[in-house]
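Posted in: Structural Biology > Protein-Ligand Complexes

Title: Requesting predicted complex, TXE in pocket

I'd be grateful if someone could produce the 3D structure tokens for the following input. Sequence and ligand are given below.
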Amino acid sequence: MQDRPTKLVEYQTYIDGKWTGAQSGKMFETSDPYTGEAWARIPECDKVDADLAVEAASRAFETGPWSKMTATARGKAMRRIAQLIEKHAEHLAQIEVRDNGKLISEMAAQTKYLPEWFYYYGGMADKICGSVVPVDRPDHFNYILREPVGVCSFITPWNSPLMLTGWKLAPALAAGCTVVIKPSEYTSASLLEFMKLVIEEADIPPGVVNVVTGYGAVVGEPLVTHPKVAKVAFTGGTATGARVNELAARTFKKVSLELGGKSPNIVFDDCILDDAVSGAISGIFAATGQTCIAGSRLLVQETIHDQFVEKLVAMAKQARLGNPQLYETQVGPVTTPPQYQKILGYIDIAKSEGARCVLGGGPATAEDGGGKYFVKPTIFTGVDNKMRIAQEEVFGPVLSVIKFKDEDDAVRIANDIAYGLGSGVWTQSVRRAHSMAQKIKAGTVWVNTYRAVSFTMPFGGYKASGLGRENGAEAIDGYLQSKSVWINNGPGGGNPFIMKTAG
Ligand code: TXE
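-- Reply #1 --
Done. Output follows.
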């Protein structure tokens, strides 16, 4: 176990290029989920700070150096950001683990990969082209400008704080927007380190990237309702996402939402069994199940069900629970106390619904004897898709195994859910792979792999899993709007009382 820190680290937040506390002077503590001990103090911002940050972002967008910078220079600035992330990747990962308890092996892989987002979108900055339109009028020269939407608010969760920020920040900066970021109250520290080590060092002008820290309802909502905010990009729970969407609609903001999931991971009897077993395990137990794309519903064809479950349990049993800062640890603690209670509550619900617990099923202690908030990797069989354990997002290391007969049955069960974020298919049949990919209603279908993401591939949800897409070339559209320019080079006039709808 880590020692209790004798002195808490004190962070400030970053508004208009300056380090500051909350205007109220309030602070809150952030804890290490492994030790359960507080290790840092974070400014507890409120609406006053949110308003200051939005005003700073608005000035930077309207009149600051950023607004006058060429797109090529923006792209260069983004490459500086990428290089600085590369330099500090390991340190940033360690801070993330300290705050969210996820495995260093996963968080370090994320921070090492994150520069690619800034290289990719940085390269796009001076390739955002408008177009000339051959409009159906004589003597006209019409064109479309693509302009940045303006000030954007980002609200992010605790499970992958920097990665999910980068998915928003890189396309927003490439488009020429300015931003205010509110990280989760559980994991603010890595973003504040990022601001110091990366954004400040990269000489990004004041006001372009601002951070306010604190609680969602207090400092998050003012960022969603502020009239000068043009776009809100949110990642978090579905209930919060619905509220954010409703509030943002009142002032007609653009919104993108990346919400929860209950993703089906579908194993056919023609799969390579060992690959599918590993895929099923990493689908649910990686990140202690705290990922929106967790393959939490494992659909197994009845012909191989018993054999598959036996192999699955045998492998899952070997998982090493322990200190998430060590590279050999395979399962870390749950990030927050409410999340820990929620997961244990769902385990009870599953048992009361009649699902059969074949592995785990309760709190755990890490192998080193230390640690807080550990839950045993848990597998339920005999799950019916109508049960709450199959329909609701647990966000923990709890797998529901559901039997199916054939392809049609698998598709029916996979789609009989409010969510539509990820999905997996394990098969060696090319025909079946493509057919399933077409029929599953989800933003991502992985075939013979699971939980892969890339800056090049769009990511987002169908149904209650969200709105819009992050990543890939199309993500930049979420930070741009079109302006139609009409130039009449011929005679004007005509009937002044009638709209010019015809040539
Ligand atoms: O998320 P919240 P919570 C799911 C998962 C989890 C559940 C609840 O099922 O168990 O959501 O987790 C900010 N206005 N996911 O409570 O509340 C909040 O401060 C504006 C899925 O931690 O959605 C934080 O910054 N902002 C998920 C962010 O919203 C508000 C990741 C997310 O917190 C706000 C996390 C408000 N009224 C949880 N209320 C994923 N998609 O990966 C809260 N916030």
